[in-house]
Amino acid sequence: MSSLLEAEGLQAYYGKSHILHGVSLTVAEGEVVTLLGRNGAGKTTTLRAIMGLTPPREGHVRIGGVAVTGWPTHRIAQSGVGYVPEGRRMFRHLTVEENLRVPPPTQGRWSLTAIFSLFPRLAERRTSKAGRLSGGEQEMLAISRALLLNPRLLLLDEPSQGLAPVIVDEVMRAVQRMRDEGTAILLVEQNAILALAFADRAYVLSDGAITHAGPAAELAADSEKVKALAGARASRAA
Ligand SMILES: Nc1ncnc2c1ncn2[C@@H]1O[C@H](COP(=O)(O)OP(=O)(O)O)[C@@H](O)[C@H]1O
Ligand SMILES: [Mg+2]
User: Fold this and answer.
1) Whole-angstrom distance, CA of residue 139 vs CA of residue 164
2) Which of 28, 51, 139, 164 has its CA 20 to 30 Å from the CA of residue 88?
3) Residue 181 lies in a domain
4) Helix, strand, coil: what percent of the chain each, to 5?
5) Tell me, what CATH number does 222's domain have?
6) Is position 125 within any domain?
7) Ligand 1: which residue has its CA nearest to atom 5?
8) How confident is the model over 22-51, as a mean pLDDT?
9) Does 135 fall in a domain?
10) Ligand 2 centre distance from Cα of residue 43 (Å)
11) DSSP string, 82-114
12) What is the largest CA-CA distance in the chain?
């Protein structure tokens, strides 16, 4: 299986705090992989290490077989990686449409029209200021901005965080459609049951180390392991 993303032996620090202790994971073309773990396990740091925002002190990141370790974040993004960070940063004083016109247009499946068909809610609110959107609409906008760059791989950091269940379903249906369109996804979630329902494979991160790797269905069927992820929310309710 050819890996689109290969992270190998990532060691990451914030100052003197050693956070990631040799994290390795892969995402194949078109695959949805979830990275689970309790709050503070190092999930966000793993995504930041992959994007070069918290460059790993040791280890390697390859995108489509190309070593991108040490590259600046914008170059890693240009190599085909979209990143939707926690907290949905956006230009609050710009409208939805203005936010979506910030990324330079790229060739590919995800045009403004395709985005508005993926998220009809955003189409309805295209002239609203981003700062006035609901949490769910802001998440959709943040995902849309990343998609407009037509990435081969999308890194999503806790898209369900703080959203009502009905909105989470809408966001996850969109994740499903992105996958159907061939975008590979690395989905970080605290909501294990939700993420396992969508993913092909799963990794569990604990104290900066991978403690489990395998098919998502297998982990979903292991109620003890899923429960152990709690602290992580083990239910679909937000
Ligand atoms: N900017 C930072 N400076 C110092 N420590 C940090 C910083 N960000 C996160 N940490 C610490 O790193 C660990 C992993 O955090 P994080 O990757 O955000 O975990 P997760 O996303 O799984 O909740 C936590 O112990 C957290 O307190
Ligand atoms: Mg996090």
Assistant:
1) 12
2) 28
3) yes
4) 35, 30, 35
5) 3.40.50.300
6) yes
7) 14
8) 96
9) yes
10) 5
11) EEE-TT----TTSBHHHHHTSSPP-SSS--HHH
12) 47
What is the position in ligand 1's atom list of the atom closest to the CA of 54?
1
Would you say residue 235 has pLDDT above 80? no
E strand intervals along 15-78: 17-28, 32-36, 58-63, 66-67
Report the pocket of ligand 1 as residue ranges, CB < 6 Å: 14, 17, 19, 37, 39-45
| CA-nearest residue, atom 14 of ligand 1 | 42
Q: For residues 191-212, give the mean pLDDT.
A: 95
Provide the pLDDT confidence category of residue 85 given band limits of 50, 70 and 90: very high
Please provide residue 125's backbone torsions phi and psi, each rounded to the nearest 5 degrees: -110, 25
pLDDT reading at 154 higher than 90:
yes
Lookup result for tokens 């949805």: 32
Reported pTM: 0.93
**Which residue among 10, 13, 14, 206 has the greatest number of ligand 1 atoms within 8 angstroms of its CB, and so is best to mutate?**
14
**CB burial readout 59-68, b (16+ within 10 A) else e:** bebbbbeeeb
- Within a domain: 158: yes
Structural domains counted in the chain: 1
Range in 53-67, 88-102, 135-149, 222-236 the model is least confident about: 222-236
Secondary structure (3-state) at 181: coil
Range of the domain at 132: 30-53+81-228
